[in-house]
Specification:
Helices cover 51% and strands 14% of the residues. It has 277 residues and is α+β, with helices and mostly antiparallel strands. It has two domains: 130 residues, no CATH class; 126 residues, 3-Layer(aba) Sandwich (Glutaredoxin), CATH 3.40.30. A seven-stranded mixed beta sheet has the order 4-3-7-6-5-8-9. Strands 1-2 form a two-stranded antiparallel ribbon. It is elongated. The protein starts with a strand and ends in an 11-residue tail after the last helix. The C terminus is likely disordered.
């Protein structure tokens, strides 16, 4: 997994695109007569706010059934739940409306938006290339809760959602019911939850106290999986296709809408008809 500090590469990409848009708008506006760079920069930032809000609300609307069941998850923006194309459209519409009587300002601001979008698209392409070269599903020897030895490679042949967790980690604890629901809704996907650095007694006690029924919980006392996955913290969720290739990763707490979205997109699974139970 790659990123800068606590931020994932996806977040870093969006921030970089916004900075490029802001700088480009200011530079272009300074080259135009009687056009202060601050005006263009301010409008870019205003458009970003409205665009992000629209992108988040659009995503919530798309996954309304899941979000309405857990309203607090609507403000958990760390799950990466944004409908980006809608955010860009709203940002452009906002700029177009605000610059109806200032065509010169419109040119500089929209030029900045275009530059930011280009950077965002190129960065997405680089990230896709990185994922293609990411390490495959590691061949680690771990243990089940009843002490049986198991290799991660045994899960190859079907999509795998691998989650690294510990009972002392609050976001890990909060997201556990999400995986319990997902394993029921996606029976063709293996949800493998690997406890990091804790004893069988601690892991088992946590699962029993929360009343969780998870099918594939493994123990990793030496935290080998964190090293193999290049994880920078807990919880970490990594997605592998049926060939064992890494296709996505998520650092931090993940919500049910975000988890289902990644599964449907990355594993090319058809949406389930009717309401998921």
């Amino acid at each position: 997994m790659i990123g800068i500090g606590p931020f994932s590469i996806q977040v870093v990409t969006v921030i970089a695109a916004i900075l490029v848009a802001w700088m480009t708008a200011r530079i272009v506006s300074r080259r135009m007569p009687d056009m202060p760079g601050k005006a263009a920069g301010s409008m870019i930032l205003d458009a970003v706010v409205w665009g992000l809000l629209a992108a988040r609300l659009g995503y919530i609307a798309q996954w309304w059934e899941e979000y309405s069941a857990a309203p607090k998850s609507m403000i958990a923006i760390g799950d990466g739940g944004f409908t980006w194309w809608l955010g860009v459209l709203v940002a452009v519409a906002y700029i177009w409306r605000r610059t109806r009587s200032a065509r010169t300002l419109r040119v500089s601001v929209l030029g900045g938006v275009m530059a930011g979008v280009i950077v965002w698209i190129l960065a997405g392409g680089v990230l896709a290339l990185f994922l293609r070269s990411a390490p495959p599903l590691p061949d680690l020897q771990l243990a089940t809760l009843d002490g049986q030895s198991v290799s991660l490679r045994e899960y190859a042949g079907r999509p795998v959602v691998l989650n690294l967790w510990a009972s002392w980690c609050p976001p890990c604890r909060r997201e556990m019911p999400v995986f319990e629901q997902a394993q029921t809704q996606f029976p063709d996907v293996a949800f493998v939850l690997i406890n990091q650095g804790e004893s069988t007694q601690k892991a088992q006690a946590f699962l029993e106290s929360e009343g969780l029924s998870l099918t594939d919980v493994l123990l990793d006392p030496a935290s080998q999986a964190m090293q193999a996955m290049r994880s920078r913290g807990l919880p970490t969720t990594v997605f592998f296709d049926a060939q064992g290739r890494q296709v996505d990763a998520h650092l931090g707490e993940i919500t049910l809408p975000s988890l289902k979205d990644k599964i449907l997109r990355r594993f090319d699974l058809p949406p389930k008809s009717g309401k998921d139970k």
